Amino acid sequence: MTEAARQRLDKWLFFARILKSREKAATLIKDGYVRVNGTRAQQPAKLIKAGDVLTISLERQVLVLKVVLPGERRGPATEAQTLYENQSG
């Protein structure tokens, strides 16, 4: 897999509109609320790729998302929803 097909976890969470800022995404990751393929992410700079499964514990819900694409920008919600498949049920 090429480096271009990978993306920083905090950046992807921001582009996918899971969190409102990269700073909030970084804090959530550092505090241990994000797992990548079942393993707790230690750093916001963790590289993710298509096919990775993210488990994100938010204040009132737990999201399980499968990464489909890396993000290029923080676009409208309809564009952001193309970056992942919701596995939460």
Structural description of this entry:
The radius of gyration is 12 Å and the shape is globular. It has three helices and seven strands; from the N terminus they run βααβββββαβ. α1 (9-15) crosses α2 (22-30). A hairpin with a 2-residue loop joins β2 and β3 (39-40). The strands form two sheets. It has a five-stranded antiparallel sheet with strand order 3-2-5-6-7. Strands 1-4 form a two-stranded antiparallel ribbon. The chain has one domain (3-86): Roll (Structural Genomics Hypothetical 15.5 Kd Protein In mrcA-pckA Intergenic Region, Chain A), CATH 3.10.290.10. The chain has 89 residues and is α+β, with helices and mostly antiparallel strands.
Quick synopsis:
By secondary structure, the protein is an alpha+beta fold. The chain has helices spanning 9-15, 22-30, 77-80, and strands at residues 7-8, 34-36, 39-40, 47-48, 53-57, 62-67, 84-86. The protein contains 3 helices and 7 strands.
SSE inventory with pairings:
Layout: E1 7-8, H1 9-15, H2 22-30, E2 34-36, E3 39-40, E4 47-48, E5 53-57, E6 62-67, H3 77-80, E7 84-86
Antiparallel strand pairs: 1-4, 2-3, 2-5, 5-6, 6-7
Helix pairs in contact: 1-2
Average pLDDT number: 94
Question: Beta fraction of the residues?
Answer: 25-35%
Helix content: 10-25%
State the name of the first-level CATH class.
Answer: Alpha Beta
Element string (H = helix, E = strand): EHHEEEEEHE
Instruction: Please report the distance between the alpha carbons of the first and last residues.
Output: 29 Å
Largest beta-sheet characterization: 5 strands, antiparallel
| CATH architecture descriptor text | Roll
- Low-pLDDT sequence parts: none
* CATH H-level homologous superfamily name: RNA-binding S4 domain
CATH structural fold name: Structural Genomics Hypothetical 15.5 Kd Protein In mrcA-pckA Intergenic Region, Chain A
Structural class: alpha+beta
Name the strands of the widest sheet in spatial order. 3-2-5-6-7
| Number of separate structural domains | 1
Number of helices: 3
- The whole-angstrom Rg is 12 Å
Question: What overall form do the CA principal axes indicate?
Answer: globular
**What is the β-strand count?**
7
